[in-house]
Amino acid sequence: MQGNQKWQAFPTEALKPSGPWGNEAAAGRGGEAGLRRPGGAERSQRGRAMGAEAGSPRDTALGQQLRALFYALLPGESSFRTVEEVPNYVDKSIPFFITFIGLEFAVSWIQKRKLPGRINDGITSLSLGILSRLPDVLFRSIDLISYIYIWNNYRLLELPWDSPWTWYLTLLGVDFAYYCFHRISHEVNILWAAHQVHHSSEDYNLFTALRQSVLQKYTSWMFNLPMALFIPPSVFAVHLQFNLLYQFWIHTEVITKLGPLEWILNTPSHHRVHHGRNPYCIDKNYGGTLIIWDRIFGTFEAEDEKVVYGLTHPVNSFDPIMLQLRPLAHIWNTFWATPGFCNKLSVIFKGPGWGPGKPRLGLPEEIPVITGKEVPFNPPVPAYCNCYALVHFAIIVDLYTELLASMLSQGTVLLRIGFIILSLSSFGLLLENKSKAGILEIIRCLVFIGVYKLGYFRSQFSILGYAYEVLFSLCAAFWGIQIMKRITSFKDKHH
Q: What is the mean pLDDT of the chain?
């Protein structure tokens, strides 16, 4: 949920955010009086009790961070006077993400004697998650920049930041805004082209929750702006994170039904329906935290027959770049192939199933029938390729984490981002067993060795530096041998 505000002063600002939102808090300082209620002195004692010493993010206890994943923090322990004080709940949840993914694997093995996903699909989901966060390194949060601008200049009234009523109203407001945006993202083709990335997995597990779009964040922010007319940015910043975190744990099959909670909350059962490509699942259950909006507006559907996951027309790729861009290419081609100016506009702004002479959202009978015999895209690859991809993906995670934690020059940041994108794309080709993956891996390994020796790359763990150099040298040699074998085999076949 970061945005397109260009960076400023790379070494000291852009990569060392003062809070979960980077420097956009500074954008609100000009109107910081707007972030504080009149009579703030009377509330200073309560502010201190909440840890509201302005200027830096508040610390959160381990139990609080765990409860944040389930939207289970109380207003008194998650209310802050200014945006700068709001903890980075999302980043602090990463250890819990890893723990719950491990727990899901263990429970699935105990319940069904099988793992909840595949290596190729899991790496692709994580690759898309990393790819979606790379703009955050360069750009500020458009969500909060725009929100603070509206608050500072156009707010109609100022609800108290420390009132439980404001907290609960914001919970409802953020979730309703998410419902509206989510529904429109399914019903407007150009928005669906961005959102479909999240639906492209044919597995349904906690990895899928991290499969995100690079482009979606650039349209979602505007749905929150009405709240800026009366809800303080610090309260909004908390709930924006809670709404996102809550949606992590509902991406699982190991939890079945949750009894009476199914009537109010979005649950794993409800969200499984949303990710299904069965005809009864299409365009249903858009809620983020609450399912009440779907019940009110007629988009609710209970889980019935076994859900088959993924897109109605699967992309069949593990390349994260391809998954991000192919739907846009399809819209481009359809736009020029469709006659008539109004029809061309309809290609962009009507549903993904629309065509000339069809209803806005397309014809339900054109949705492919589910037989129950659908086989996920799973090209055979040698076992060593899966192991190789896992090891090298772990190295990319190391480099990515170190990138977020360091103060770097603009050129170094762009170089690292470029290498990460190259690596993620190469892993996708490798997992599809594409012949050009070997050539790309040679190039990637040689680039890493050269850039690492020049000091532009480094691990979080200094002890791994020499090991990385040796590993990438061996891998470059390995792929060189593999390519030579293919060339020799090709020549033998044609003699």
A: 87
